Amino acid sequence: MAVGLPENVFVTKLDAAANWARSNSLWPMPFATACCGIELMATASSRHDIARFGAEVMRFSPRQCDLLIVAGRVAMKMLPVLQRIWLQMPEPKWCISMGACACTGGVFDTYAVVQGVDRFIPVDMYVPGCPPRPEQLIAAVMEMQEKIKRTGTITGKEFAQRTAATGPQPFDVDELRRRREVTPVPGLEIYGQPTVQR
């Protein structure tokens, strides 16, 4: 060890190297269910070329991915599938909610559509729009890369605290009823429904 340098300098350098590698080699798992999926596909085309940012390796196997991109509306029947995919992805992992439908339910304010996926899985980045342009998704990937460089550690200890979905509390009586009727997915007990204070 160099004289006069504290031990945590080396750990900090290792964290920086790991964060640089993770941020420049994102493997997205596309969960495209509607028109936002077309914009997601356009992002990978030669015109927009998401490969410039190291995120062109789109895999449809969650065990090989570290970035979940939820593009489009999610129906209540699809929610257990989305949660199972999230659970199958290895840590460290991140999530982008793309489009108004994935972020807030969009124009589909109905009992059958999830009013924001952040109520059921943790979301790191939101891309607004209906549908958002490919440039917006690329901007979100760049912001995600910066976030990974700032917050990551080589041991992944920052993910130990990620034990609950981070979305807003339910406020509608119908939404509370729908959440009670959702069949829980085994293994997702850590993402339990938040308690509502009346």
UniProtKB/TrEMBL annotation:
<feature type="binding site">
    <location>
        <position position="130"/>
    </location>
    <ligand>
        <name>[4Fe-4S] cluster</name>
    </ligand>
</feature>
<dbReference type="GO" id="GO:0009060">
    <property type="term" value="P:aerobic respiration"/>
</dbReference>
<keyword id="KW-0830">Ubiquinone</keyword>
<dbReference type="Pfam" id="PF01058">
    <property type="entry name" value="Oxidored_q6"/>
</dbReference>
<comment type="subunit">
    <text>NDH-1 is composed of 14 different subunits. Subunits NuoB, C, D, E, F, and G constitute the peripheral sector of the complex.</text>
</comment>
<feature type="domain" description="NADH:ubiquinone oxidoreductase-like 20kDa subunit">
    <location>
        <begin position="35"/>
        <end position="143"/>
    </location>
</feature>
<keyword id="KW-0004">4Fe-4S</keyword>
<keyword id="KW-1003">Cell membrane</keyword>
<dbReference type="GO" id="GO:0048038">
    <property type="term" value="F:quinone binding"/>
</dbReference>
<dbReference type="InterPro" id="IPR006137">
    <property type="entry name" value="NADH_UbQ_OxRdtase-like_20kDa"/>
</dbReference>
<keyword id="KW-0560">Oxidoreductase</keyword>
<comment type="function">
    <text>NDH-1 shuttles electrons from NADH, via FMN and iron-sulfur (Fe-S) centers, to quinones in the respiratory chain. The immediate electron acceptor for the enzyme in this species is believed to be ubiquinone. Couples the redox reaction to proton translocation (for every two electrons transferred, four hydrogen ions are translocated across the cytoplasmic membrane), and thus conserves the redox energy in a proton gradient.</text>
</comment>
<dbReference type="GO" id="GO:0005506">
    <property type="term" value="F:iron ion binding"/>
</dbReference>
<keyword id="KW-0408">Iron</keyword>
<dbReference type="InterPro" id="IPR006138">
    <property type="entry name" value="NADH_UQ_OxRdtase_20Kd_su"/>
</dbReference>
<keyword id="KW-0411">Iron-sulfur</keyword>
<comment type="similarity">
    <text>Belongs to the complex I 20 kDa subunit family.</text>
</comment>
<feature type="binding site">
    <location>
        <position position="36"/>
    </location>
    <ligand>
        <name>[4Fe-4S] cluster</name>
    </ligand>
</feature>
<keyword id="KW-0813">Transport</keyword>
<protein>
    <recommendedName>
        <fullName>NADH-quinone oxidoreductase subunit B</fullName>
        <ecNumber>7.1.1.-</ecNumber>
    </recommendedName>
</protein>
<dbReference type="GO" id="GO:0045271">
    <property type="term" value="C:respiratory chain complex I"/>
</dbReference>
<keyword id="KW-0520">NAD</keyword>
<keyword id="KW-0479">Metal-binding</keyword>
<dbReference type="GO" id="GO:0015990">
    <property type="term" value="P:electron transport coupled proton transport"/>
</dbReference>
<keyword id="KW-0472">Membrane</keyword>
<dbReference type="GO" id="GO:0008137">
    <property type="term" value="F:NADH dehydrogenase (ubiquinone) activity"/>
</dbReference>
<dbReference type="GO" id="GO:0050136">
    <property type="term" value="F:NADH dehydrogenase (quinone) (non-electrogenic) activity"/>
</dbReference>
<dbReference type="GO" id="GO:0051539">
    <property type="term" value="F:4 iron, 4 sulfur cluster binding"/>
</dbReference>
<keyword id="KW-1278">Translocase</keyword>
<feature type="binding site">
    <location>
        <position position="101"/>
    </location>
    <ligand>
        <name>[4Fe-4S] cluster</name>
    </ligand>
</feature>
<keyword id="KW-0874">Quinone</keyword>
<feature type="binding site">
    <location>
        <position position="35"/>
    </location>
    <ligand>
        <name>[4Fe-4S] cluster</name>
    </ligand>
</feature>
<dbReference type="GO" id="GO:0005886">
    <property type="term" value="C:plasma membrane"/>
</dbReference>
